[in-house]
Amino acid sequence: AAKSRPLATLLTALGIDGVGSAGAAALAAAFGSMDALEAATVEQLVQVDGVGSVLAESVWTGSPARFTAIC
After folding, report:
1. pTM for the full predicted model
2. Cα torsion for 26, 45, 64, 62, to the nearest 10°?
3. pLDDT (0 to 100) of residue 70
4. Contacts (Cβ under 8 Å, ≥6 apart) of 8
5. Is the pLDDT of residue 7 over 70?
6. DSSP state of 29
7. CB environment 6-30: b (16+ within 10 A), e (fewer)
8. Rounded distance, CA 71 to CA 56, Å?
9. How do residues 55-69 score in pLDDT, each as one tens digit?
10. Contact 11/19 with Cβ under 8 angstroms?
């Protein structure tokens, strides 16, 4: 079921600190897939409009196990 959900919805559901619907939508638009997002560096995350260094760190340090469990 999770594979058919939009990426932005999944990112919001993960409960990563600071990631709300706007941030999730921006990240989904920029990276397009969970694999691309997981492979992104903090520097790449900060390049996304609306994503600052604190949010980028929260996303980058999010547990890969948590991503895998939902996806």
Report:
1. 0.79
2. -90
3. 52
4. 21, 24, 25, 27, 28, 29
5. yes
6. H
7. ebbebbbebebeebeeebbbbbbeb
8. 20
9. 898 888 875 545 555
10. yes
